[in-house]
Amino acid sequence: MTTSHAPQHSLQPLFAPRGVVVVGASTVPDKLGGVMAASLSSYDGHVALVNARAEGMHATVGSAVDASPDGIDLAVLCVPASACADVVAECGEAGIRAALICAGGFAEAGGEGVAHQARLEEAAARSGVRLLGPNTSGFFSPSRSLLASFVPGVSTLEPGAVGVVAASGGLNHALAFAFQREGCGLSLGVGIGAGIDVSAPEVLTYLVQDPNTRAIALHLENVTDGDALLAAVREATREKPVVAMVVGKHDIGEFAQSHTGALATSWRTTRELLRQAGAVVVDHVDELVVATSVLAAGRLAPSASPAAALVTAQAGPGLVIADALHEAGVGLPTLSQETQDAVAELLPPMTYQANPVDTGRPGPQHDELVSIVAADAAIDVTAVYALTEPVVDLVASAVPAHESGHAVVVGIDGPGPDVTEAVGKAAAAGVPLVVGPRALATAVSALAEDARRQAAASSSAMLGGSSLEVSTGPWSEDDAKRILHDAGVRTPVRRICSTRDEARRALADIGGSVVLKVSDATILHKSDIGGVRLGISDPTALDEAFDELAALGSGEVLVEQMVGPGVDLIVGARRDPVFGPVVMVGVGGTATEVYADVAIAAVPCPRDDLVSLADRLQARTMLDGHRGDPPVDRGALADVLGIVGDLLVHNPHLAEVEVNPLRASEAGLIALDAVLVAEPQDTATKPEQPQRSTQP
Question: Residue 619 burial (CB < 10 Å; 0-12/13-18/19+)?
């Protein structure tokens, strides 16, 4: 128990209090006040109970504090929403510095709940009491036997190395029990609930300072302060790994009017920026548990391209693991000849030995085999998989390599009792163990991704974009391209024409085939209205196209050089309402919208983040010389991303910059279409922005 009167962190009175008071305690076991009192009875500090109508309990918070031998820092409120504000005020007067509010019925319920929450926030601000909740099932710190939860099962939780920060109190409990089954236990589990005061970023910073926490599992449902969240994740991951899961993939809310806004959804943006900040991002709860558990056992050294070895006793599961690792970008390099020679002395000749190493069945020399493979100079982490059998103790076979300082993760399958026994042995030996081939691939992938994130965090070179000042809009395509050209992005030769004669002179001066487009700042979706003509090379066709396009808009037509073939990309920057300026890149065309295959980064940021951004795309192989197309220069692409992002950073009146497509050809990157969108003057009555075009 912490007895210091000068906490190192503002949340210490909440998570490591000198004493606790339960307000609204009850002797009835199935009431909230009764369940909470029972849960907190295990706390090794003083616990006081307040209920003016219950015999043997304190009548007021003040009397409970006066009777406490060491003082009380935390109040657990088991009272209705309508009473919470008055109780918090009473707590503040008694010197209590933190409160857990379990009740619902606040702003989320509407009606009177909005007023209840306003009064609660006012009382907390006036009294200086920090609030966790409302609408949460609580938190628990097993190492202190501090179980501020109304879920009775928390009494079985064992102390461990994982800290949980969950938006949902229910998921906080589900994760706690899952980590218990994994054999690693919890240092602290927190359900943020409504989060009107204590937030996920604050709990993250608390866990960074907590010596019992070696890895952090983060669950998010929404983000209200993007800067604070990303700063907390960056701070945390410098010291400890953070594994994050963001829900809401299929509830993206109102689409922005632009392509960039439509593609960079809140869910996707949150995930991408958490990854950029250093977190390992996963999709599912089981992945969150596996990844955090294995990282709690130890991180790999920072590496831009960590490599794995796989030792498997069954080829079928080995193929599943190897395929999943490849999908996650984890290399399985061929073992050195020296390592293969040593392996060959231990295994039958018909087995595959280059990596993965297929043993056929684990034999009595399995520990020596694992140690040899793990010691190969090219290997950062070794995955070991087998079905349980009496011939070999799989956990024991990994211990020598583990004790020699090599990263080893064991994956097993087998009967329930065998698995339970192995989990216990692994926990005692400090060897990370998971159940199933897919879980083993998840564990190794998480270690590798964390190593990559550590390496990326060490990059300090910032990409210098353009600080060019942009005039107020609206901007035609030609205006947007002129701005991009001045900032350093290559654009096609073009000319704005008001007459047929001007268009003919432009055709002659540009030479070859040209593209004609309607030129009107209010028309962004030119293709949808037939506002584009391709491949025009003779004056007669030019005259006809000019007349048709001039009639569609302002009367002006853009005559532009026809650029040769290549890979089309979409590049953009937008002002995210939560995270601020972000840039995105995707493969251009309608497939980008259908599959939402984009990669996103906050700006400004290190150059390496933008250089590697395109490699996060599912369609990244198209950028590497697909079907004879030239490979996309990642450095040049980073330059363009830096420029569009920096235009947004330095021009607050810009809402978006988009280049679609940005064509990568033999001649380099060139912007075939460009759009600038202004920030609305009154965000409360945001006008509808014009539809934009997908450039041919």
Answer: middle
Query: What is the pTM for the complete model shown?
Result: 0.89
Residue whose C-alpha is closest to residue 647's, from 407, 509, 479, 425: 479
Task: Identify which of 452, 453, 454, 444 has the alpha carbon closest to the alpha carbon of residue 305.
Answer: 452
Whole-angstrom distance, CA of residue 555 vs CA of residue 675: 19
Mean pLDDT for all residues in the chain: 90
Inter-residue contact 406 to 374 (CB < 8 Å) = yes
The label of the residue with tokens 């491949």 reads 535
Give the 3-state secondary structure of residue 408: strand
3-state DSSP helix/strand/coil percent for the chain, to nearest 5? 40, 20, 35
| CA proximity to 382, closest of 353, 407, 413, 412 | 407
Across the range 56-80, mean pLDDT stands at 96
Q: Say which residue the tokens 């205006």 belong to.
A: 479
Residue 594 predicted with pLDDT over 90: no
- What superfamily would CATH give domain 567-685? ATP-grasp fold, B domain (3.30.470.20)
**Sign for the pseudo-dihedral over CA of 362, 365, 369, 370:** positive
Compute and round to an integer the Cα radius of gyration of the chain: 30
Pick the CATH number of 1-135 from 3.40.250.10, 3.40.50.720, 3.90.1150.10, 3.10.290.10: 3.40.50.720
What value does the mean pLDDT take over residues 364-380? 96
Mean pLDDT of 6-31: 88
Nearest Cα to 99, choosing from 197, 180, 207?
A: 197
Which pair of tokens denotes residue 403? 């004790």
**Separation CA 555–CA 538 (nearest Å):** 21
CATH topology of domain 301-456: Rossmann fold (3.40.50)
Residue 72 · residue 120 · CB < 8 Å: no
CA distance to 173, 544, 549, 572, per residue, from 661 (Å): 47, 26, 21, 10
589 CB-near residues (< 8 Å, 6+ apart): 568, 661, 694
- Same fold for the pair 1-135 and 493-561: no
Per-residue b/e over 246-279, b at no fewer than 16 CB within 10 Å?
A: bbbeeeeeeebbbbbbebbbbbbbbbbbbbbbbb
Q: Which CATH superfamily is domain 157-298 in?
A: Succinyl-CoA synthetase domains (3.40.50.261)
Report residue 24 as tokens: 């609204």
State which amino acid sits at residue 542.
Answer: L
